[in-house]
Amino acid sequence: MSTQPRAGDHSSVGILGTGSYVPKEEVTNDWVAEKTGVTPEWIERKTQITARRYAAPTEATSDLAIKAAIEALGQAELAPEQVDYLIVATSTPDSPQPPTAALVQHELGVYGAACFDVNVVCSGFGGRRRHWQETRQGRCAAGRLLSRRQR
Question: Listed GO molecular functions (predicted)?
Answer without folding.
Answer: acyltransferase activity
